[in-house]
Description:
The two termini are 24 Å apart. It contains three helices and five strands. Strand 2 (13-18) and strand 3 (21-26) form a beta hairpin. The radius of gyration is 13 Å and the shape is globular. By secondary structure, it is of the alpha+beta class.
Amino acid sequence: MANKRTPHCAEHVVWIVEPWGVTLIHAPHGRSCQLPYPEAAIWDLLTRCRPEETIRSMLELIAGIGPHEAEALVRSRLDAWAEEGWLETGGPK
């Protein structure tokens, strides 16, 4: 399931790695979002430019879940983060 438009961190979004997960911050809007594990692992792998297939495979191991559950979790998170403005698709700016 290759995505022709690669998602990447939206402009003005920064993140902080915390012991429990990752905190996303949209500086101009002053909003934040806390990502516990395993969602934090998805964000980390995505920002390291890992392909979706690699993210799904690694998530299976990290979270101890099956391939269908990993695929559904990755897809739902990427879609939600794009809708919420944390991710953009297409080429990086």
